[in-house]
Amino acid sequence: MMRALLIGFAFALGIAEAPAQSTFTESYGTPAFLQSKYHSLSTAVAYPAKATIDLRLGNNKSVQREDQTARFVTLVDPDSVYDATYKVYVAAVSDLRVEYMTYNQADRLSLTLNRKTYTANCIDGGSDVFLKNLAHSYKTTPTGEELHLKVIKDFPLTAKDKSKLWLRANSEFVLQ
Asked: In sequence order, what DSSP letters do the residues of 27-63 get, joined into one string?
């Protein structure tokens, strides 16, 4: 009994901390998307963009699309606890919609395919973890910035009904 009380007390004080990270999706540290020139933006903006989508999904399904009407927007956070704005990159073509969002040091990736949305989300109360299986690169362009997002290791996206869609390595999303 005494041992159980001491162990419970140790967890309550954080002495024996158990990691809350997911094997696939979260990583503590400094995310690469902090390199974006828009990361510190504190006002609402909307920019037109072009997107190239090359996804590898599930069991050998491949989806390639181009969206000439993609967009990048910032949404002002009225509470502004950790960050002033959400940065949102969106591309949609026929039966596919890709949305990538960053806030503080957290991010979220959502794919809507055939009207079903699958998500990997690290934007939460702390906003201090991010999707570790995504590689980011940014390039300044005459009209703004190009985001190149690449999946470096397979990971699942989850729908509300708990079904999973695996996003496979070498999937890419480029917004310019």
From this structure: E-S--GGGGSTTTT--S--EEEEEEEEEEEETTTEEE
Which is nearest to 88 in space by CA: 106, 100, 105?
Answer: 100
User: Beta strands of the chain (E only): which ranges?
Assistant: 26-27, 46-57, 61-76, 85-93, 96-103, 106-113, 116-121, 130-131, 134-141, 144-151, 155-158, 164-167, 172-175
Give the pair of three-digit tokens for residue 41.
């933006």
Using alpha carbons, list the distances in angstroms from residue 132 to 10, 38, 100. 29, 21, 14
| Structure token pair of residue 15 | 């002495």
pTM for the full predicted model? 0.81
Distances 142 to 108, 145, 146, 175 between C-alpha atoms, Å: 27, 8, 10, 14
In the chain, the amino acid numbered 67 is: D
Q: What are 71-114's pLDDT values in tens digits?
A: 988 888 887 776 778 889 999 988 899 999 888 888 899 999 98
What is the model's pLDDT at position 162?
94
Token pair recorded at residue 60? 């050998």
Over range 49-75, report the average pLDDT. Answer: 89
Query: 42 or 152, which is more confident?
Result: 152
What's the mean pLDDT in 3-7? 44
